[in-house]
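Help! Submission page says 'invalid entity' but I think these are all valid:
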Amino acid sequence: MASNILEGLNEAQREAVVNFDGPSLIIAGAGSGKTRVLTSRIAYMIEQGVDPKQILAMTFTNKAATEMRERIQSMVPNKLSASKAREIWMGTFHSIFLRILRNCAHILEYPSNFTIYDTNDTKNLIKTIIKERGLSEDKYKPGYIASRISVAKNSLVTPGAYISNTALATEDRHRKMPELGNIYVEYCRRCKQNGAMDFDDLLLQTNVLLRDAPEVLARYQDRFKYILVDEYQDTNVAQYTIVRRLSLLHNNVCVVGDDAQSIYSFRGANVELILSFQRDYPDAKVYKLEQNYRSTQTIVEAANSVIEHNSRRMKKRCFSAGERGDKIRIFKAYTDREEADMVVGDLRDRVREGGDEWSEAAILYRTNNQSQALEDVLRRKGIPYRIYKGNSFYDHKEVRDMLGYIRLIINPRDDEAFKRIINTPARGIGDTTVERIAQIAKARGCSMWDAVDTLVDATPADAVERAIIRKVTDFVALIRSLSLSREVVGLYDFGMEVASRSGLLTFYRTQNTPEATSALDNIEELLNSLQLFNEQCEAEIRAGEREQFEKATIEEWLGSIMLATDMDATEEDGNNKVTLMTVHSAKGLEYKYIYIVGCEENLFPSQQAMEQMEELEEERRLFYVALTRAKQLATLSCAEMRFKWGNMEFSRPSRFLSEIDPQYVEADFDVRREQRPRNNDLTPREGESAIDVLRRRFDVRYQQKPAAQKSQPTDGGAGFRSRFGEHSSQSSHHTPKPQPKPQPTVNTANMRRIERPASGITTTSPCAFAEGERVEHPRFGRGTILRIEPMATDHKLVIDFADFGEKTLIARLAKLTKL
DNA sequence: TATGATATCCTTTTT
DNA sequence: GGATATCATA
């Protein structure tokens, strides 16, 4: 029968949808209808009689999973199969594995109600361990240790494997952290003791489970006849191995990805995995989706011209059959502040002229902190915006405190939660008391909660213990009684009881600060989320998708909360807003107007990515992702100076700007010429801030009229900044008439003229290094140069480091010293 | 033990 | 610059 699922698909897409048996690799360029193919494939499978229960579909983000589910439901024809579509195992890697692990936790000797530790909990636990071992936190930075452990877990290096690995031991010794392995071991022991898994454990432990429990592996292998993976280029070894194991029986694995959009190597993702798919599955069929339906020809070709600068790529050629479209515009502003002004002003003009919604525009940046300047301007101009920002909601103290209570009640072994809330709000239990409780718990081999829980019912002769009892009695009573009400009252009421009886509510109500008000708002939002979760479950029960007895539980809610991010937040008050977010979070999204700000060296590409070839290429892919979000018009901007940790810093336009084929570009300055290192005259003298430099050079103007500005006369920086950027803001934002485009002020024009170096020197110089030479790098230690390859203006060095293996560095950027 | 003052990190990206 | 952590003091 002719399926209407296939209607409107092009040849390549249709092939990728129809051939659902056997391993498939779908290379899907940006905007090539990847999600559509994936969802059509699943819908088609169901239509062809595949049992939805046998389908496992995994994505990286909740957002992608939700979108996919909704689209499948709208695709399958009748209601019967719509409810069947619900039976697909569909979700993020983490949520799917969480589900498996909850079922099998006992096999791994974890409680089934294990807690999920977020990065904060991880860091705190690591800190405790470092302190206990009498190590210095300066040497052993918790954040760094955490990332090392994360990398190890994502590469499936268990603690045991870690300490017996001599290469790792050498590396740690080289970094002056010989204890790292032991910290890793202890960290895992403590997590287990606390009944907790961190994010990476969800992957690692699933692997352990499938490795060590053949009956479990067999069960899931049998169950998942068809496995589909979205964004395959972002999988790490742990995820890859699970997919591989699960697919060994039926061999029906379908992965969709784009090597050009691999941007998560810092999380252990490995492009090689997509590049080597055909080696792992030799009979895999490969489909290439190369037609871009999203963007104009100009955007697609411009993006192609950038990505061509990368060395490792899969062969594909993306094209657009859409209209040619406008050229990519590049602005240069004087300061970050002026950049924000120009971008927002232009955005407003565009949206108004085009009669568009605000929601059709997005501003992307490399790092979250760049949002500040943009937010200020948007607020000032009265333009509605929404900002995606990591886990910001769960980062709030009051939210974490609430979660602390709930976590302790669910899992009393969770010492991290215990320590967080034992004195929050303050109830006179200080560090010394907590320390003693920890000691008692350690001596007895029980959790801290168990220690106080049993202690209060005893009558010890020990004076210290009696003192503790006096202090914690109320707390123990509180937790006990909350645990009881958890059994009887509904989710929302339970949350409410936690908030009020813990004293958090009164604590914030009694102080009349804006912070307290916002804290109360956040607590309310948390309670609402409980209510919402409950309602959703009830709706599912009514629809028969959930069994009657499967009432919504607080455990389930907590699990979903821990794996959720603000990215998944549902829209509350209207959608018509400009979107602000990092390039990373923009992946998979599209907007009519895209603004990419901060296109500067050391920012995009980021400083630490600059010297290493692989990282630089990842930045370039990131840039590619950013550019290809635009449907109609992409606007890039950079600033000549910007605030970086408190003072002004100069910057040069990003190399990526000059890598775009000029025929697709319209810039207000010479992108290529500006790539040169800037005039030495502007480098600060000793003890001189960037502002001082400018003062020195453009004295007169700045001494003359500090008045007429609302800025503080004492603050040179603010005074300087307010001179720029204010020019387009005087008019009321209610006026519909088009605003004049922000023009460079007289001052800027002057400065630019003076600042530009007069001479044009070519920068191709001979390489400072020779093959076979011994060098030392601050991060990688000593090594030998194996090969030297020329680049446009510099040289690539392939260096074999004693402790880190082969790395490709860029000669002039890498901080190398000859030996 | 609680508070306010000082030090220090940060700035890559997130499930 | 700003947030958070740690320290010194009452």
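Support: the input was valid. A stray whitespace character was the problem, and the output above is from the cleaned input. Chain A has a mean pLDDT of 82.
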